[in-house]
Each structure stands twice: as structure tokens, then as C-alpha cells.
Specification:
The protein is mainly beta. 8% of the residues lie in helices and 38% in strands. The chain is built from two helices and 15 strands. The protein is globular and about 40 Å long.
Length: 217
């Protein structure tokens, strides 16, 4: 059941002004607004494929993270992977950039240190340890911006996991839940009491990502 927060403003297209919305839960009050310029840590080649406007997420007025998505998603022949919402996106594809202004957390509850990371598309393994982990297998894996500078690279799953471990600093990659959205509506909303979903479009593709939440919720 999706619970909407306190809405400030009306739904608009993903191009700014962005829908503003916030709600308080467990002492957290998140809000989305327009981000500033791209961080200098982002390689010039990566910057060229990103939208110039990004999204800033604040927590009780303090900067939590900023996200910039690419202007278009490259496509390929559809994969035959089951339970995947974006089958035309190759594993390893650059999807965007995220900067954690403060200590962050990934979908597993792992600590993410402040810094700049690339967001690359991955598909969760279809095996017993991952059964029931999410309603779909699409995820974004974080990789350190300083070690990942080729926007056209599509590392295979093993290489992507190895690179993402450098972001999590644990044996498991750093991941954010990500999927193709059901509607074109842009916004920022609360889901499942603890999760905060940013919804926008990359090119013509509506997407959603949980930018803040609680592991296992």
C-alpha cells in the first residue's frame, strides 16, 4: 500500500520545477528539490551524457544526496531474464551519478560514505539467497566516480560487483532499488512507511528509484 506524504505543489513533468513533497516518519522528513551543478569528481565524458539538472534530497533540512540521471538510456535486444522491468537495458549501463553529502545507506542497510558514485544498471541474481529480496530484479550498483570514468563501458556482472564493492567496502555491492515506473508522472513520495521513491524519466522511459529507506522494508 503506497502512502503519500504531505504534498507541496502540483505534479509536473520531470523537467523542473520538480514536485515538492515531504512527510515525517520515524523522525525523518525527506524532501526533493533541484540540485546544483555536477560535482567536479565526475569525469568529463560521463558529464556529457547526463542531464544538466539533477535532484537534491534533504533530510530534515540537511542535504542527504544529489542525483543526476543520463539524458537517454541506450537500448539493446531484450534479455530473457525473468522478473526484470527494463529488459532492453544492458547490464553495466551507466544510468546516473549520485553524491552523498552525508553518510548514506544502500538498500541492504550498508553504510555509504560521503562521496560521488556512478550508478550502473544491474540485475539481482535469480538464486535462493536473493529470493524475496525485492518485487523485481532491477537494481542500481554504486561505483566510485574516481575509478569509473567511461560512460560507454558496460562491465559484466562480476566486474560490476567487484567495482561496486569498493563503494560499499564490504563483500556485497552497494545497491539501490530501481525499476521502470508504471506512469509518466514525476514526483517524490513515501512508500511502505520508510522508503522514499524518486520518480522521473530518462528520455522517454519512466523510472523510479528508492533513494532513502530501511533495509528489508
Amino acid at each position: 500500500m503506497v502512502t503519500m506524504g504531505i504534498m507541496k505543489g502540483a505534479l509536473v513533468r520531470w523537467i523542473f520545477p520538480l514536485l515538492l513533497m515531504s512527510a515525517a516518519v520515524w523522525g525523518q522528513q525527506y524532501k526533493a528539490d533541484k540540485a546544483g551543478p555536477l560535482p567536479p569528481e565526475v569525469a568529463s565524458g560521463v558529464a556529457q551524457v547526463l542531464e544538466k539538472s539533477g535532484f537534491q534530497i534533504t533530510n530534515n533540512g540537511a542535504k542527504y544526496c544529489e542525483v543526476w540521471f543520463r539524458a537517454e538510456l541506450p537500448g539493446a535486444a531484450a534479455s530473457k531474464e525473468p522478473n526484470v522491468t527494463l529488459p532492453h537495458v544492458p547490464v553495466g549501463t551507466l544510468v546516473g551519478v549520485i553524491r552523498f553529502n552525508a553518510q548514506g545507506s544502500d538498500r541492504r542497510g550498508q553504510t555509504i560514505q560521503p562521496g560521488v558514485y556512478l550508478l550502473r544498471y544491474g540485475i539481482m541474481p535469480d538464486n535462493e539467497p536473493h529470493q524475496g529480496a525485492a518485487p523485481h530484479r532491477d537494481f542500481l550498483l554504486l561505483t566510485p566516480a574516481g575509478e569509473d570514468q567511461d560512460p560507454n563501458a558496460t562491465p559484466n556482472f562480476d566486474a560490476l560487483v567487484a567495482l561496486s564493492r569498493k563503494a560499499s567496502r564490504t563483500p556485497h555491492p552497494a545497491v539501490l532499488s530501481f525499476w521502470k515506473a508504471d506512469t509518466d508522472a514525476a514526483g517524490f513520495w513515501q512508500q511502505s512507511d520508510t522508503d522514499w521513491v524518486l520518480q522521473t524519466k530518462i528520455g522517454d522511459t519512466p523510472i523510479a528509484v528508492i533513494v532513502a529507506g530501511v533495509a528489508g522494508s
